[in-house]
Amino acid sequence: MKIVLASNNKGKLAELQSMLEPLGVELIAQSQLFAGEAEEPYHTFVENALAKARFAAERTGLPAIADDAGMCVEAFGGLPGVQTAYYCTQFGYEKSDANNVRALLEQMQDIDNRRATMVSTLVAVRSALDPEPLIAVGRVRGEILREPKGTNGFGFDPIMFIPELGNTFAQLPPVVKNSYSHRGRATQQMLDMLRENWF
Fold first, then answer.
1. Which of 73, 128, 145, 177 could link 172 by a cystine bridge, Cβ 3.0 to 4.6 Å?
2. Could you say which residues bind substrate here (predicted)?
3. 10 labeled part of a ligand binding site
């Protein structure tokens, strides 16, 4: 079965493809099928993920999966949240993972409360008008380090320290990260829902 991933993020594509492999799903990045991206005007992960999934399904005629994920920093009242990917741009930096990490560390330099949650919301639709989208949410709580550690992963992985594991996500082998991460947890839920409802 072919499913379009409503994202152009290569890191997300690689992670989700490996985790959906047990279903025999061929996950195709939307950039391979059309140009452009859905607007994400909402303030919640689930609304933005649903908008992205419906947009990709409409443009391709294929079932679609979208992931909206982000960092929710306790000291910032849950922000940057849905604006995580563009976080650094509000401080004059060009959009990039490295600049997001730099900006967050700068904004938190005098903050002692380092608690944060990484959230991933996956939405799957059979078609653009699917009245019954499948929705899975994964969360991982941790702490923001004061400097990056590790070279694996992407996004905020180098500064998201997981106390139970004693490492940042960027210090973990991909197979360990995928089994424990916010996206890994959401994907496991989604796998179960896809098996039950679509396969």
1. 177
2. 7-12, 69, 154-157, 177, 182-183
3. yes
**Domain CATH code at residue 67:** 3.90.950.10
Print the domain residue range for 100: 2-197
Q: Is 149 annotated as a binding residue?
A: no
Nearest CA among 65, 92, 46, 95 for reference residue 2 = 65
- 68, 110, 112, 192: the catalytic one is 68
43 is in an annotated binding site: no
Name the pTM for this structure: 0.88
User: What are the tens digits of pLDDT across the range 70-109?
Assistant: 999 999 999 999 999 899 999 999 999 999 999 999 999 9
Q: CA 169, CA 185: separation in Å to the nearest integer?
A: 14
130 catalytic, yes or no? no
Number of separate domains in the chain: 1
